[in-house]
Write a structure and sequence with these properties.
By secondary structure, the chain is an alpha/beta fold. The chain has helices at about 45-55, 80-95, 110-115, 140-155, 155-165, 165-180, 190-200, 215-220, 240-265; strands spanning about 5-10, 15-20, 25-30, 60, 100-105, 125, 205-210, 225-230. It has two domains: about 5-135 and about 185-265, Rossmann fold (3-Layer(aba) Sandwich); about 140-180, no CATH class.
């Protein structure tokens, strides 16, 4: 099993990718979120690729147009469907034995995979999808706020703090009053993601980190398909050891399921 570099084209631009090869018929495509390069923050995506390769799966990750080593203009996650489709085509060309491809993306990479309707993959694992129409729109949805304050009331230490000062209680009840108001209508982005994913015929797993505001906001408004799993104690990037292990398990399970289906014929 080897790691090598390759390039492919997307609408006239040359994109750069890294391929960790394995002999199996199922592969993983890692889609980077935001303006992150293909190695991921602190090499996290490179580590994920190495771990899945060790399980017998080829893994490809790439820089979309205008990011990292790739040429072209950065069109953001909402314009990255052509990049993802071109990457899948290159992945299959480089690994002719591939019969199935699962894609993984976090944050707006997950949203990009949704908007592209899976981009021709056989399965997707989506973590903490970005639900906001604009970059600065990160307010806490009422349902999330109510759950957060309910959890605080169940903690004896927090109850002691609330009982010790009127200002703290005043702030609490002000926040609670705001949280019981009618929720804003889901964004057009959310509706577009739901519609596109509804047309996807493959397996879908959605991971929501319990400590991540982006994931919680998504979960509060999501009405579409997909098996949603909450990862307790996880932050946005699954940076803790236990959270990272659960992320790896979820991606590995999606790959194993595709291999099982192939074995079943």
């Amino acid at each position: 099993m080897t790691r090598r570099f390759l390039s492919f084209t997307c609408e006239g631009a040359i994109l750069q990718a890294t391929l960790d090869e394995a002999p199996g018929p199922v592969g993983l495509l890692i889609v980077s979120g935001g303006n992150e390069i293909r190695s991921g923050a602190f090499g996290g995506q490179a580590d994920l690729a190495k771990a899945m390769q060790a399980c017998g799966y080829s893994v490809m990750r790439f820089d979309r147009r205008g990011i990292g080593d790739s040429g072209g203009e950065n069109g953001g996650f909402q314009g990255s469907a052509p990049d993802i489709r071109a990457a899948i085509a290159a992945f299959r060309d480089e690994c002719p034995a591939l019969s199935r491809v699962v894609a993984y993306g976090n944050c707006d990479a997950a949203s990009a995979l949704m908007l592209s309707g899976g981009a021709g993959c056989d399965g997707v694992v989506l973590s903490n999808p970005w639900p906001f129409e604009a970059d600065g729109e990160t307010g806490t949805p009422p349902a999330v706020a109510r759950a957060r304050y309910a959890e605080r009331f169940r903690q004896p230490r927090a109850l002691g703090r609330f009982a010790s000062g009127g200002k703290i209680l005043a702030r609490l009840f002000k926040a609670l009053r705001a949280s019981v108001g009618s929720a804003p209508a889901p964004s057009r982005l959310m509706r577009d993601m739901e519609s596109a994913l509804d047309d996807f015929g493959g397996e879908t797993t959605i991971l929501i980190s319990s400590l991540d505001r982006t994931g919680q906001a998504f979960n509060a408004d999501w009405r579409g398909d997909g098996h949603i799993v909450t990862v307790d104690g996880a932050d946005h990037a699954f940076s803790g050891r236990e959270a990272r292990a659960q992320l790896y398990d979820a991606i590995g399970s999606a790959l194993h399921e595709q291999a099982r289906q192939l074995d079943m014929g």
